[in-house]
Amino acid sequence: MSPQARRNIPERLKKNNRPAIQQFEPQERLFFRFNNLTQEGGHFYPASIGFPEFSVNRERFSEPEDVLLPNFFDWGIATFKKEDIPGEFVVGNENSNETVYDFDAFHVPEEENYSHSEVRTLVNGVYSEKKRIRNKDVKRYFRFKLSERLQTLRDPLI
User: Which residues of 114-132 are buried (b: 16+ CB within 10 A; e: fewer)?
Assistant: First the structure.
């Protein structure tokens, strides 16, 4: 991040040695930015939602407009609640080993964005940055369920 961009970061967003806080209230809103290619007529394209994880800002530590920092001011802002994150998805049956995919929000503060969080996919209760999730049904389920819950707070200006 350039020195100019750092100067534009509000103090509330600076980490300043604050620890991550993993407790999210069900009604807490999560914000993310989007461009004009990700939705049409207020409906988000499921494929535009990141998987197996994607970045958001949490309401507890930021304002919706903070997702536009440092230089995405012509993008749109969307939101959903923590409770809108889809429930688990189970693959397999009684004749094979079941794999349980679960989705949840995690507070992952950055130095210039304390509110930074990620919605992550866990496999049998474990999250791995290195593990690729190849099951297209899981990806489709997550993206479609979440896309139904997204709300636009501001349309892109581009």
Answer: bbbbbbbbbbeeeeeeeee
Regions of the chain with pLDDT less than 70: 1-7
Does residue 101 form part of some domain?
Answer: yes
In a domain, 18, yes or no: no
Instruction: At 65, list the tokens.
Output: 């407009």
Q: What is the pLDDT of residues 98-115, one digit of tens each?
A: 999 999 999 999 999 999
- pLDDT value for 7: 64
> How many domains does the chain contain in total?
1
CA nearest 149: which of 78, 67, 89, 50?
A: 78
Cα–Cα distance for residue pair 50/156, rounded to 1 Å: 18
